[in-house]
Design goal:
Number of strands of chain A: 13
CATH class of the largest domain in chain A: Alpha Beta
Largest sheet of chain A: 7 strands, mixed
CATH architecture of the largest domain in chain A: 3-Layer(aba) Sandwich
Strand content of chain A: 5-15%
Structural class of chain A: alpha/beta
Helix content of chain A: 40-55%
Largest interface: A-B, 77 and 76 residues
CATH topology of the largest domain in chain A: Aspartate Aminotransferase, domain 2
Distance between the termini of chain A: 58 Å
Oligomer: homodimer
Strand order of the largest sheet of chain A: 2-10-9-8-5-3-4
Radius of gyration of chain A: 21 Å
Number of helices of chain A: 13
Chain lengths: ~400, ~400
C-alpha cells in the first residue's frame, strides 16, 4: 500500500461544542516519555491527579478518577455501576444527551421512565419531586450542561431531594466541569462524569468520574456483577487506591495531560476561571445578539461555555460553517437531534474562553453571514462589554 | 491544596510486558494540535489509519478500527458484540488473560465452557475440535500471545475448524500485533483485538479491532441491543465508514499516535519487523539461558516479544526488580496469577526489540542477580548470536 505522508493537520481554532483546543502545556505533557502503569513514580502522578480532580469536582469522594475512555464511557460507567437489571431509573430529557442516557440505561437493564422538557429549557424541582414521588426510582439521571441546546440545569437542592426519597443522582457534567461550578459535595451528587476535551483543555480520551459514599455503598450491595468488566469500579478502585492492583493498563499519556490541565486550572483558581467564562460569555452574547442571532436556551439558563443559536432564515448552515473552517480555520458546531440544521453551537471552553477568540469569531462570522448579518456591529458590541468589565 | 510540581518522570526503559516505550516519532505526534472528530482533515487521517491497520492485521475487513479504550476494552467489544444472553461460548484458558475472557463473557450473559491447559503450554487442534463438537458454541475465544506465560498459540487451521462447526472465533492479539504474524484473513479469524502500547510502540489508550464479514453478519442477526452503548459496533461503524455520523468524540491524539506507529511499521515492513523480533529473541534467550534462567513457556512455543522466565530459587523477586528500576532505570514485569512471585516477564516489543536493549538488560540483570547469576557469560552469549546472524 502507499504510505500516507507525515502527520500535518491544518491549523484550527476549535470553537465548537468540543473538542476544544488543548492548552500548549498539555500538548507538551502528551509528548513525555512513558512510565509503566505500576511504576512507583506513576502511582505518585496518579495520586496527584486524583487529588486535583477532587478539587475541580469540589468533593472529598475517595472514588474519584478518570475512566480510560471518552466522555460517553463515563456516562456508561455511572449507569452500569449503579443499575442492576430491573432497577427503576428516571432520566430527564431536554436534549440529545439526555436521550442518550435513556439508551445507555435501557441497555443496562433499567426500567426507564423518561421525564421530558422542551429543548432549551430546564427542569424545576417541583416537577422532579412529583416524578420521584410517583416512580420512586433507584436512580435519577440529569444533564448539567446540555451540549445540544446550551441550557444550564440548576442542581441546588436536587441531591437533597433525591436522598429524601432514597434515590441516587447521576449527573452529566461533560460540558460543565472547568467552566462553571460543579459542587459535588455541596449539591449531594452521587455519580458524576465529565470529559477531558472541554473545560479541562486536554485532548479527548478520559472521562473524570466521582462517586459519593452513598453510591459506593449501593454498589457494594449489588447482587449481580457490573455488566462491564472494563468499567467495573469495584475492581478499578483497587488500582487507583492504596492497593494499586492491576486492572487494565492506564492511558499513561492522557493522565499526564489531565494532570497538567488540572495544574493549569488550579493555578488560575476555580473562582477566577468561572468568572473568566462569564465575562467572555457576555461579550460573545453581545456580539451574537448584534448579529441578530437568537439563543436556543431560555434566558437566564444559558451556559457561559456553550452558545447555541438559531440559524437565521435563508442562511445556508453548511456553507457558513465551511467558510469559517476553510477561510479562517475556525470550527463551530452544527445542530444535533431536533436542532440538526437549525442551530449553531459555539464553544468558549477552558483555555479557549479568551477575548481574542471572541473578537475573531465575531469578525469572521460577520464576514461569512454577509448580507444576512448586521453591519460591523458585532465586534463593537463585544468590545463594549470588555471595556466596561 | 498544594500544587504538584511540573511533570518530570524518571527515565525508564520499559522492558516489561507492556507498556513498551513509545517511538520518539509517536511521542512527537502526540503533541500535535487537535482537530475535531468531524473535521474533513481528521476524517482523512482516520481513513489512512484504518487502511494501515488493515495492512498490519493482514485483512480486508471493512470493520477495522481502534476502540477508544485500552486493550481490555477491545476484548469486551469483541465479546459483547458477538454474544447475546444465553449464547454458548468456549474460552481457552492457559493463562491470566484467558481467565479474564471467561469473566468478560460471563458478564455478557454467555453460557461459558472453560477449556483448560497447563500454563505455559498451548492448545492443539484435535482437542479444540473435540470440544467444539461437544459444546457447539456460538463463539470460541483464545489468546494468541499469553502475556502471563509467554506462550505462543498456533492459529493456523483454527478458523477453518470453527467455521466448519458454525462457531465464530475471537482472538486476543494484544501482545502479538506488530511483533509476530497476525494473518486475520488467511487464518479466518472473526473478531480480533489488540492494543497500542506493545508491538505498535504507541502509548496505551487504543485497542485496534477487526471483525470479519461473518462476524458482522452475526451482529446484524442479533435480537437484542449490544449491552454496551460505548462499544456497540453497529453504531461505531457509521462513524468510521463513509457516513461519518457522530457516535462519541474520538481520542484524536491517540489516533495521531497510532497513525504514526503504523507508518513506522509499514516503513520497516511486516516481514522485516517479524525477523527483527526473532533475531533479538535468539540473543536474549542465549543470554538468559547463560544466566541459568528457565522459560515458563514450552520449548518451540515461546514468543519472541515476551520472555517469561522462572525466578531462581533463593532470589528475591522484588529486590531484583527494584534494583533494575532504581539503579538502571529498566522495568521488567513480575508474574501474574499462578506465576505471581515465581516468574519475570521481559518484553522486547516493537521499537524496543533492539540489540542495545538486549545487551543492557542482560548486563544489568547479571549485576542484580549477583552471586545467583552466571559469571559474565550472558552478554557474551547474546553477542555470539548477533555475530552469527
Amino acid at each position: 500500500m502507499t504510505l500516507p505522508g507525515q502527520l500535518n493537520p491544518p491549523s484550527r481554532l476549535l470553537l465548537g461544542p468540543g473538542p476544544s483546543d488543548a492548552h500548549p502545556r498539555v500538548l507538551r505533557a502528551m509528548a513525555t516519555p512513558l512510565l509503566s502503569h505500576l511504576d512507583p513514580a506513576f502511582l505518585e502522578i496518579m495520586a496527584e491527579t486524583q487529588e486535583m480532580l477532587r478539587h475541580a469536582f469540589q468533593t472529598k469522594n475517595a472514588l474519584t478518577f478518570p475512566v480510560s475512555g471518552t466522555g460517553m464511557s463515563g456516562m456508561e460507567a455511572c449507569v452500569v455501576n449503579l443499575i442492576e437489571p430491573g432497577d427503576k431509573m428516571v432520566v430527564c430529557v431536554n436534549g440529545f444527551f439526555g436521550q442518550r442516557m435513556v439508551d445507555v440505561a435501557g441497555r443496562a437493564g433499567a426500567a426507564v421512565t423518561v421525564l421530558e422538557q422542551t429543548w432549551g429549557d430546564v427542569f424545576d424541582l417541583g416537577r422532579l419531586r412529583e416524578t420521584l414521588q410517583k416512580v420512586r426510582p433507584k436512580v435519577l439521571g440529569i444533564v448539567h450542561a446540555e451540549t445540544s441546546t446550551g441550557a444550564w440545569q440548576p442542581l441546588e437542592g436536587l441531591g437533597a431531594l433525591c436522598h429524601e426519597l432514597d434515590t441516587l443522582l447521576i449527573v452529566d457534567t461533560v460540558t460543565s466541569l472547568g467552566c462553571v461550578p460543579v459542587a459535588v459535595d455541596a449539591w449531594e451528587l452521587d455519580a458524576v462524569f465529565s470529559c477531558s476535551q472541554k473545560g479541562m483543555s486536554c485532548p479527548p480520551g478520559l472521562s473524570p468520574v466521582t462517586f459519593s459514599t452513598r453510591a459506593v455503598e449501593a454498589i457494594k450491595r449489588r447482587k449481580t456483577k457490573v455488566q462491564s468488566w472494563y468499567l467495573d469500579t469495584t475492581m478499578i478502585q483497587h488500582y487507583w487506591d492504596q492497593v494499586h492492583s492491576y486492572h487494565h493498563t492506564a492511558p499513561i499519556s492522557m493522565i499526564y495531560a489531565l494532570r497538567e490541565g488540572l495544574r493549569i486550572l488550579l493555578e488560575e483558581g476555580l473562582e477566577a476561571r468561572w468568572g473568566r467564562h462569564v465575562r467572555n460569555q457576555q461579550a460573545l452574547k453581545a456580539g451574537l445578539t448584534a448579529l441578530g442571532l437568537q439563543y436556543t436556551a431560555v434566558e437566564g439558563r444559558q451556559l457561559p461555555q456553550l452558545h447555541a443559536v438559531r440559524i437565521p432564515a435563508g442562511v445556508d448552515d453548511a456553507a457558513v460553517r465551511k467558510a469559517l473552517l476553510t477561510e479562517f480555520g475556525i470550527e463551530i458546531g452544527g445542530g444535533l437531534g431536533e436542532f440538526k440544521g437549525k442551530a449553531w453551537r459555539i464553544g468558549l471552553m477552558g483555555h479557549n474562553s479568551r477575548p481574542g477568540n471572541v473578537l475573531l469569531l465575531l469578525a469572521a462570522l460577520e464576514q461569512c453571514l454577509g448580507a444576512h448579518g448586521a453591519k460591523g456591529s458585532a465586534v463593537a458590541a463585544a468590545n463594549g462589554v470588555y471595556k466596561a468589565s
